[in-house]
Amino acid sequence: MSDNIELRSESVQEILGKMPSWIVRVGSGLVFLVVLVLVVGSWFFSYPEIIESKLVLTTQNPPAELIARANGKIVDLKVVDKQKIKAGDLLAVIENSADFEDMFLLRDELKKTSSFLIDDKKINIVSSNKSYRLGEVQTPFNTYLKSCADYNRFIELQYHKKKKASLLQKKSNYRMYYNRQYRQRNILEKELSITYKEFNRDSLLYSRGVISKSAYQQSEKNYLQQSYTFHGSRSTLSATQIEINELDQDIIDLDLDKEKQRKELQDVIIQTNDNLIAQMDIWEQNYLLKSPIDGSVSFNSFWSANQNVKQGDKVFTVIPSDSTRIIARVELGMNRSGKVKLGQRVNIKLNNYPYMEFGMLEGRIRSISQVPEGDNYSLDVELSNGLITSYGIKLKFAQKIEGVAEIITEDQRLLQRIFNPLKALLKEHVVKD
After folding, report:
1. In a domain, 80, yes or no
2. Measured by CB atoms within 10 angstroms of the end CB, which terminus of the chain is less buried, N or C?
3. Residues 351, 117: Cα–Cα separation, whole Å
4. What CATH number is attached to the domain comprising 352?
5. In whole angstroms, what separates CA 251 from the centre of its chain?
6. What angle (nearest 5°) sits at the alpha carbon of residue 66, between those of residues 64 and 70?
7. What pTM was estimated for this model as a whole?
8. Would you say 379 and 406 are in contact if contact means Cβ atoms under 8 Å apart?
9. Is residue 295 in some structural domain?
10. What percent of the chain has pLDDT over 70?
11. Residue 365 domain boundaries
12. Of 201-215, 294-308, 351-365, where does mean pLDDT reach its minimum?
């Protein structure tokens, strides 16, 4: 056919191979516009990041779990399930080699001996003649009894008191002896005065030739003998006074020695008493289950006496009386923890209540621990609407309900999310170079 177009001709190929310039201009403009819209939109478009963590629903005052610290049977069960109890109440006794009633009696008796340190009184343990059955605490108790016996023997002997009385009597005798000597000294002093006057008179007579030289010498001899006797009495008085002073010092040393020995014996009693109480406390921690708080007791796996427990078993749980404020305890891992801040919103999904059916609880972060425990930080989340879910359903509270916390972090622009990895790679490349 003559009308057929020759597609392979040069003219046709030239027409088909050349794109009109207006199409190129319009296409480039559209591509630039689309890229500009995406960039501008990524700047204005922002959304938060969700960090999921495990949580446990509890109260502000959490329940106290009583864990068995020893193996054995429950030989004495003091409470029933859901019974109201006070802090310090005894709940159960685990089987051991000691009689817990003897332990309680001994502790009461020890409280009565606290005043013995004030003065010199004997330490009396009223039931010391009783045959206590204390098991592993028996040895420290015997040591304490020995220290008390040593102290009582020290008080009973009254060695220092008797010794002091003897020294005081000796001092009194020396004082009497001193007084007699002093009177003798006064007499000798008068005799010396008379002898001295006679000697002066004979000296005057001898100088005038009235008496012989032998008479004068005899008078001088009498004066010297009397002077010697007088000064000898003074030396005896001084020696007696020295004896009295030494007795006074002996009495002071005796009082000091008495107080030193009494203090040493008391220190031994205090040491053995403290050790005994410490051993009794350890015994109580191991074999007695006491409530640390006011509340109601909840039985776990053990319901009656004579059941065997193992070390580490959770025997009871004490629900506090003031457990009204419900909070969620969240375990936040190290990863991305820096994005979590106070006041951020948290969506809570409980394992007991599927969120698709019951809805989610809403809360706010109230506190964040400063130091991690292991690999996790601890967060306290306060429930905004209590146990009322997003569906308006009020859930029933039970301790230790587990779930998942979705922490809603701060919004971040899409453009930042795109360029932050590029920025990090660029900085890393620059540092390496």
Report:
1. no
2. N
3. 61
4. 2.40.30.170
5. 45
6. 160
7. 0.58
8. no
9. no
10. 79
11. 50-61+321-432
12. 294-308
